[in-house]
Amino acid sequence: MNSLLIPGGKAPAPPYETTRETTRKSLDEPMKTNGEQSTVLTLSQVGKSFGNLRVLKGIELQVQRSEVVCLIGPSGSGKSTLLRSMAFLEEYDEGEIRIEGQLLGWQDTDKGRRRAPQSQINQVRRNVGMVFQQFNLWPHMTALGNVCEALRRVRKFSADEAKKRGMAMLEKVGLGHKAEAYPAQLSGGQQQRVAIARALAMEPHIMLFDEPTSALDPELVGEVLQVMKTLAKEGMTMVVVTHEMGFAAQVADSVIFLDQGEIVARGTPRQIFHNAEQPRLQQFLQNYLDRNAFWQDAKP
Amino acid sequence: MTFDASIFTDHLGDIGSGFLVTLGTWSSGVVLGLALGMLIAVAQVFGNNLVRAPLRVFIELIRSTPFLVQLFLVYYGGPSFGISLDPIPAGILGLGVYGGVYFAEIFRTGFQSVARGQLEAADCLGITRLQCVWRIQVPQMLVMILPALVNMVTVLCKETAVLSIITIPELTMVLTGIGSETFAFVETLLMLCIGYLILVELCSRLGMLLETRVGRFMSRQPR
């Protein structure tokens, strides 16, 4: 095995751990099953075009409760567009996306497909939490204000209830002491953790992460990944677009490789990272290996 | 001819009331203009083309004609269209509409200055567009457009001088009146300048105070 990554010579250990064969068994806790395994998110034949460019083609995907799915692929492969479609931030124009059985974004009328009213869209994605590459915190509100805003305006919590829940969420991401700080006073990693707390406060059934660590300085990546690992351990259903192959290898239940708008490969981390068969995937992983195994070639 | 300060002490009452009329029409015009400007901007940002196109025409029309002419039209031309207004309401309406289109343009750029991602985040959390405007866009854009707003408010202060042509007894009318009565033009015109200077200066001071207050969250230092 592994021969594809190592063109001759002795195999260096991959810089990431890929010992987990399947699912949650090797994370510290067993996953919450809640009786039968239910499907949180279903994509069937999802397609999307920007003008003449088809950026997503016939995407089929199911995400089960408590499953962690990582989307990897080169830039421009459509993985962010796919993730954003799951929150209807992009209007996909073919196929269906269903969240817990409900069709997202569209409604079928006798005159064909129409955009659903905003209230219906909000109803369907009520249980979807989104985390962005650029955090997208509201800079004029404190960390606590950011977390409480939707609780107050959307869930109609009283000020006290919202504050209590908000503080609990900030504690959860380790930022209880920064509740009164404005985003500009926080590091990138802290800002992203506040953004995660903000999404968590709404008690989502599924969390979507759009390259959550790509805008961070390398030494701040760890704290955000740590929070995400904890979430995965607690049984949160997650779809993560990421360039952090280590995270994908250690935490994902399944890894999906996208290229040019298509799912080229999918499987367990071991299948994807050790036994890649598709040339495009092999090439993609080789780039990572080249970059991350630099210490193998360190000068004496 | 020597500078004669007694002109002012003799007419202190008139000058005082003129000052108050200027202050009153100016502030009412600003309030009306801000409200109108916000309405126009919101309609432009969120409306469809059916709403946008006529507003665009209206804005261009107001911006490309002199305030003096607009005011004449409202006050003297109004009755031909069945709108008869007293001088002061006509003046306030004129100022409000004139200022409103400029405020609308300032607000519009303000709306565009808030990053799209922040709105996406709000959208994902189920926050409605209207809540987004008032809770997220307006507070942030006010910080950014405050200098431009203050600037426009001071412009309107000086435009109140034009109201004298529709017989509103504001500062300019009162002081030029005293000037032609007493032939003390230098004194009265100087006094007029000082009057506007005081108003504009107060306004910019207030603006600067506001700028430091509302912009606090941008600072990297903890409060």
UniProtKB/TrEMBL annotation, chain B:
Residues 19-202 form the ABC transmembrane type-1 domain. The chain crosses the membrane at residues 26-46, 58-76, 88-107, 145-168, 188-210. One of its GO terms (cellular component) is ATP-binding cassette (ABC) transporter complex. It is a multi-pass membrane protein. CDD domains: TM_PBP2. GO terms for biological process: amino acid transport. GO terms for molecular function: transmembrane transporter activity. Signal peptide: none annotated. It is found in: Cell inner membrane; Cell membrane. It comes from the Bacteria. It holds the Pfam family BPD_transp_1. Its main location: membrane. Keywords: Amino-acid transport, Cell membrane, Membrane, Transmembrane, Transmembrane helix, Transport. Part of the binding-protein-dependent transport system for glutamine; probably responsible for the translocation of the substrate across the membrane. Belongs to the binding-protein-dependent transport system permease family. HisMQ subfamily. PANTHER family: GLUTAMINE TRANSPORT SYSTEM PERMEASE PROTEIN GLNP, MEMBRANE COMPONENT OF AMINO ACID ABC TRANSPORTER. This is Amino acid ABC transporter. It comes from Pseudomonas graminis.
